[in-house]
Write a sequence for this structure.
């Protein structure tokens, strides 16, 4: 009887130690964007993007502060926040979606599509993004690229600087997730 | 002749405005946090709780302000080629993320896990954590 109890206890202990996390998180995801024109190139990076993935249903949520994008020039940052994005009125950009046909138990590299809703300046658009997912031990790395059409989010560019800003902004992201422990 | 002068003058004014905009857009450098006066001094836990209780009010109080925050180092991370000092809150779910201004290995060596630290930076707002950018470690010798 004692042996059975010990075995059961061992089994419970083993199960609790090998339980996979149901959620993964990054607080320091990176999102960068590039505007290429013949006049000039503009680049900005945000290194404090929050993202959580629920591994039970493959839902992904992303949130970032628009004023946390870092530019090479302070005035570019000022124009981006005050004139184009209006980050006082719309401080956050968010994405809510699902990683399609994603198997979180698979170790190694996978290419998957993420479908969901991107919200910038309170305007929401459905998007699909091709992503690379690398799973090594408990760490998941999700990265990809997609384009944002400036007009889709009703961003007003003054005619005088219009040649300096691309109509389509190339966007990249890189999120390194760890198990979410509260 | 008058119309020709008016047209030329208009063109010159437009050109000057364009040059001014272009210069403004491309030639302003980033803020020097070390020489910028601190707006608010606050404990990490107080700052986190403030945002948890009332984010809108806290944004008015702290956002875009130069904040000096005192707290306990939870971790020092090196992600995306930059150092971030993470200050702990009351629980494990909310922190203060202090993104250091440069790859300053000397000042990073002066702090360690669970030690008290004073950091100055610009508050950007709150997601799950309070975010501070352009940070410098204040109680490091080179800044005293």
């Amino acid at each position: 009887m004692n042996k059975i109890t010990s075995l059961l206890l061992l089994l419970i202990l083993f199960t609790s130690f090998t339980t996979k996390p149901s959620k993964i998180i990054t607080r320091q995801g990176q999102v960068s964007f590039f505007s290429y024109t013949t006049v000039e190139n503009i680049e900005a990076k945000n290194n404090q993007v929050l993202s959580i993935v629920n591994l039970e249903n493959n839902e992904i949520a992303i949130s970032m502060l628009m004023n946390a994008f870092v530019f090479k020039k302070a005035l570019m940052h000022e124009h981006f926040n005050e004139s184009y994005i209006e980050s006082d009125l719309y401080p956050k950009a968010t994405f809510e979606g699902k990683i399609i046909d994603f198997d979180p138990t698979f170790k190694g590299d996978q290419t998957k599509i993420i479908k969901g809703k991107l919200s910038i300046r309170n305007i929401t658009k459905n998007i699909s993004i091709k992503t690379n997912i690398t799973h090594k031990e408990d760490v998941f790395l999700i990265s990809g690229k997609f384009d944002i059409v400036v007009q889709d989010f009703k961003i007003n560019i003054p005619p005088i600087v219009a040649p300096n800003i691309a109509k389509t902004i190339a966007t990249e992201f890189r999120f390194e997730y760890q198990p979410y422990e509260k | 002749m008058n119309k020709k002068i008016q047209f030329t003058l208009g063109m010159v004014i437009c050109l000057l405005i364009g040059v001014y905009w272009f210069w403004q857009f491309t030639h302003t450098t980033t803020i020097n946090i070390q020489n910028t006066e601190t707006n608010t001094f606050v404990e990490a836990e107080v700052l986190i709780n403030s945002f948890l209780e009332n984010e809108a009010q806290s944004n008015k109080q702290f956002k875009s302000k130069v904040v000096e925050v005192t707290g306990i180092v939870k971790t020092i991370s090196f992600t995306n080629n930059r150092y971030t000092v993470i200050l702990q809150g009351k629980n494990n779910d909310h922190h203060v993320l202090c993104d250091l201004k440069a790859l300053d290995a000397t000042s990073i060596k002066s702090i360690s896990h669970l030690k008290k630290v004073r950091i100055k930076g610009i508050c950007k707002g709150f997601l799950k954590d309070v975010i501070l950018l352009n940070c410098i470690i204040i109680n490091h010798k080179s800044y005293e």
Remarks:
- The interface with chain A takes residues 17-18, 21-22, 24-31, 59, 63-64, 77, 79-80, 82, 84, 91-93, 95, 97, 99, 124-125, 127-129, 131, 133 of chain B (CB under 8 Å).
